[in-house]
């Protein structure tokens, strides 16, 4: 069963000033497409780090972004338990 996750719900944070970045709805999806990242491979444990935001670097119009997965505390793969509900 496939769970639908809306990539627009991902938290975006500026890696320079640490502020949450709010951008237009649809921007995240567009960025993921540009980066060749399949939105279906993401979930709510992912955050997007942006190298700069309109707040701290207003002279830039585009920012390098990368997706960070928060649950990577252990090396090696652990099987993900299926969500039981
Ligand atoms: Zn910033």
Describe what this molecule looks like in 3D:
With 85 residues, this protein is α+β, with helices and mostly antiparallel strands. It has a domain at 7-57. It is built from 1 helix and 3 strands. It has one helix spanning 27-35, and strands at 11-14, 46-50, 65-69. It has a 3-stranded mixed sheet with strand order 1-2-3, with no helix packed on it. α1 links the parallel β1 (11-14) and β2. The longest helix is centred in the middle third of the chain and has 9 residues, at 27-35. The protein is elongated and about 45 Å long. It starts with 10 loop residues before the first strand and ends in a 16-residue tail after the last strand. The mean pLDDT is 84. Bound molecules: zinc ion. The site of zinc ion has 8 residues, from loops. Zinc ion is lined by residues 14, 16-17, 19, 52-53, 55-56.
Brief summary:
This protein is an alpha+beta fold and 85 residues long. Helix content is 11%, strand content 16%. The protein has one helix at 27-35, and strands at 11-14, 46-50, 65-69.
């Amino acid at each position: 069963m496939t769970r639908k996750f809306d990539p627009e719900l991902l938290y975006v944070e500026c890696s320079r000033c640490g502020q949450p970045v709010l951008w237009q709805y649809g921007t995240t999806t567009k960025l993921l497409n540009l980066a060749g990242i399949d939105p279906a491979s993401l979930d709510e444990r992912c955050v997007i780090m942006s190298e700069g935001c309109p707040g701290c670097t207003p002279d830039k119009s585009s920012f390098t972004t990368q997706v960070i997965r928060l649950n990577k505390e252990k090396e090696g793969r652990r099987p993900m338990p299926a969500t039981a509900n």
